[in-house]
Each structure stands twice: as structure tokens, then as C-alpha cells.
Write a structure and sequence with these properties.
alpha/beta, Rossmann fold, Dihydrodipicolinate Reductase, domain 2, Alpha-Beta Plaits, six-stranded parallel beta sheet, about 25% strand, disordered N terminus, EC 1.1.1.3, NADP binding, NADP, sodium
Length: about 425
């Protein structure tokens, strides 16, 4: 009797896109079909798949499900859930808005879209009493959106920091463990499929910036968009910087950093020296991790695969099952936009950080005193000085500062660059 009831109750879904993630979702729905019937209380059926070309060969995919006509999906009242895994801003934004306005629930993995137009999409979902879920938009298979929105909802969260780009973490791991140069590590990441043909979004911190904007918005209940996020990549990290990090018992990681302070939200993506004792320091290769501090939970960390066909599909599937359960119990639209505050975004120049500086100077008396004076004039306090690789006329200085406002250090470096005895400021890396 119960079996017949499940079979009669069918939830039809449409898949927009059949790339890496879309194929993973297709596989998982078929692989977990029987289990999902029991956990949802209904049969989940992929009814349509929107693709660019109907002529392309797609082994293992039921060709009768394919369509290149979005209106065919939109007009079909039997389709209750739309799964967007195409990526990009348009036409994804228009299609999702159309679906929500038509009363269809939407699951997406589109970080670019959520980071830029999240409020518009969540408002449309709320107006239509629809679910709009996007767990897969941040950190692939790692659950972080739902924990921030639900599991940790009783906390005042003050910090979210994370390694949320597997490509850059792989590159930095290879530089640290195998003594590769940046170029060698990037070539290896490309060979293994971790890096795109154009790796700019990864290595310049843009991909991580979009994810941090989403996490900060949810964690701090206030809208943060991509343009609010200061971004800096890893292209300037050298083997010398890695060697110093090892000497300082640290690693270098590209971190997304968001703090909720009394004076506003601080949010950025940049390489950081991280002591080996920190939990994020042990996150290697293409793995991701997000570290959260709340007033009740204290410290929590979420770790796992941040990308890939099945890890990302896993997060998409979690959202689909959530929506399907809501449909079963007629309670869709329970959790919509949680950005009820309007907190200011702090100008990044006013953010305080510790810094690791590596510079080439003339090997002569008075140089360090000159640097100390310039730093003192600009309110920069020196915590540590290391001198190595001295030649007859040139020496390498490494200076670690105490916490200082970004603009104070920027002004100090501007003055130092105009001094004849300062030959080159080779590296500038923040320290956690």
C-alpha cells in the first residue's frame, strides 16, 4: 500500500545544463532513486533537460529528455523543481526569475549569479512562496550555506574564513611540499583538470571573492556583493616566500576572510601566512575548508571536496531533496532571505592586518634605521626583522609588522619606494 502511494506521488524536475555538474546530478538521481523515494516520500523524476545542442552525443543520457526550448519547460505545470547548473549570469538569471514567477522552485550551483543578484532572486522566491536554494554555490560538496542559515542560526557569528578555491590551494600545496614554482604548479593543476584554460578567476582570487560575498551575507545577515570584496591573487607568491613561511613555522594559503566588527563588515580574499597550528593550515591539495567563529558554538570547521562532478552534485542533491520534502509537507518558502540588517562595508584601507614584507636594500649602515623611521612616521610597528642573503652591495630584509591599517602601510611603502637605498619591495603578504 505504502509502495503504491509513493509511486503515485511523483515530483518532476527539469535540469538546465548538462555539463560536469549537470551530469553528476543526473547520475546521482538515478543512483539514489530508491533511497530518495523513501527519504522524500515521493519518486523524483528528471522530466526535461535543457541543452544548447540536441545534436551532441551524450552517452548514458536518455535523449528523449533533452530539449533546447526553455519555454517548453517553463510552460509545463507538471515540472515543480528547476535545477540550474549552466553557470554564468545570463540567461541563467532570466530563466530563474521566470521559473520563480511561474511558481516553480529553484536549486542552483551558480555562485556568480548568487553573489551578484542574490537579493533579487530571493525576493522573487519569497513573493512566489517558492524555495530558492544554492548550497552548491559555495565550496562544492561541503555543507556551509545550510549550517550558516539553520544549524548555527542561534549564534552571533563574528568570523568566517576559508579556503574556498581548490585550484589555488593545490598550487600552493605543490609550491610548499614539492618546491615547485608558481608556473610549474599551475601547469600541473591545468594538466590534472583543476585549473581552467584561462585560470584568471582562480589565481586572481575572483572565484573565492564571489563565494566569500555569499557566505558573509548569510553569516552576518547583511547584504555583501562581489564588488564589496577586496581581491588579491597568488601570482606574486615565490619560492622565497614559501621558504620563509617554512622558517616561520607557517604555510601560505589563499583565504577568504570576513569579519563582523563594530565598525562594519571587513571582507577580502588574499594570500596569508597561517601558523601551522591553525586548523586551516592542514588543508591540502584541492580540498576546501571553512572556519566559523560564533558566540555560542565557538570554533567550527567544515572540510571536504570543494569542486568536481559528484561533490558539487552532492550539494545540489541535498537542496533538491530539501525542496521535495517541503513540497510533500506544503511548507515551501520557509527560509528566504536572511539579510535583515544593513551593516556598512568597511573601506579596506581601514582594515587592520599584520604584514610580512620582503625587500632588497643596499647593504650599508643606516638602512634599517631609515626604514624604522619611515614606518614610525606612518604608525607602522615592527614586530620582527630578519636579514639574509647579504651580498657585498645588497641585502634581503624581511620585516613582520604588528597589526596596522592598510592605508598606513600603503603610505609607508610609497615613501620607501622613493628612497635610494631601498632597491625593491619584493613581497607583501598578510599574516593571520
Amino acid at each position: 500500500m505504502e509502495e503504491n502511494k509513493i509511486k503515485e506521488n511523483k515530483i518532476k524536475v527539469a535540469l538546465l545544463g548538462l555539463g560536469t555538474v549537470g551530469t553528476g546530478v543526473y547520475k546521482l538521481i538515478h543512483r539514489r532513486g530508491d533511497v530518495m523515494e523513501r527519504t522524500i516520500g515521493a519518486e523524483l523524476e528528471i522530466f526535461r533537460i535543457l541543452v544548447h545542442s540536441l545534436k551532441k552525443e551524450r552517452p548514458g543520457i536518455d535523449a528523449s529528455l533533452l530539449t533546447d526550448n526553455w519555454q517548453e519547460i517553463l510552460a509545463d505545470d507538471e515540472i515543480q523543481i528547476v535545477i540550474e547548473v549552466m553557470g554564468g549570469i545570463e540567461p541563467a538569471r532570466t530563466m530563474i526569475l521566470d521559473a520563480l514567477h511561474a511558481g516553480k522552485h529553484v536549486v542552483t550551483a551558480n555562485k556568480d549569479l548568487v553573489a551578484e543578484y542574490g537579493k533579487e532572486l530571493l525576493d522573487a522566491a519569497e513573493a512566489g512562496k517558492c524555495d530558492f536554494l544554492f548550497e552548491a554555490a559555495v565550496a562544492g560538496g561541503i555543507p556551509i550555506i545550510r549550517p550558516l542559515k539553520q544549524c548555527l542560526a542561534g549564534n552571533e557569528i563574528s568570523e568566517v574564513i576559508g579556503i574556498v578555491n581548490g585550484t589555488t590551494n593545490y598550487i600552493l600545496t605543490k609550491m610548499f611540499e614539492d618546491n615547485m614554482s608558481f608556473e610549474e604548479a599551475l601547469a600541473k593543476a591545468t594538466e590534472l583538470g583543476y585549473a581552467e584554460a584561462d585560470p584568471t578567476a582562480d589565481v586572481e582570487g575572483l572565484d573565492a571573492g564571489r563565494k566569500v560575498a555569499i557566505m558573509a551575507s548569510i553569516a552576518f545577515h547583511s547584504r555583501v556583493v562581489f564588488k564589496d570584496v577586496y581581491t588579491e591573487g597568488i601570482t606574486k607568491i615565490t619560492s622565497k616566500d614559501i621558504a620563509y613561511a617554512k622558517e616561520f613555522d607557517s604555510v601560505i594559503k589563499l583565504l577568504g576572510v570576513a569579519h563582523n566588527t563594530e565598525n562594519g563588515i571587513e571582507v577580502g580574499v588574499y594570500p596569508m601566512l597561517l601558523n601551522k597550528d591553525h586548523p586551516l593550515a592542514s588543508v591540502r591539495d584541492s580540498f576546501n575548508a571553512v572556519f566559523v567563529h560564533g558566540d555560542a558554538v565557538d570554533d567550527a570547521m567544515f572540510y571536504g571536496r570543494g569542486a568536481g562532478e559528484l561533490p558539487t552534485a552532492s550539494a545540489v542533491m541535498g537542496d533538491i531533496i530539501d525542496v521535495a520534502r517541503d513540497i510533500q509537507y506544503h511548507c515551501n518558502g520557509r527560509i528566504s532571505c536572511t539579510c535583515y540588517k544593513e551593516l556598512p562595508i568597511k573601506d579596506f584601507d581601514d582594515v587592520k592586518n599584520k604584514f610580512f614584507l620582503r625587500m632588497q636594500v643596499k647593504n650599508q649602515p643606516g638602512v634599517l634605521a631609515c626604514i624604522a623611521k619611515v614606518f614610525g612616521d606612518h604608525k607602522v610597528s615592527i614586530a620582527r626583522v630578519v636579514q639574509k642573503h647579504a651580498k657585498e652591495n645588497e641585502a634581503e630584509l624581511v620585516i613582520v609588522t604588528d597589526k596596522v591599517k592598510e592605508y598606513h602601510l600603503k603610505d609607508a611603502l610609497g615613501e620607501l619606494r622613493g628612497i635610494d637605498s631601498i632597491l625593491d619591495i619584493s613581497s607583501l603578504i598578510r599574516e593571520y
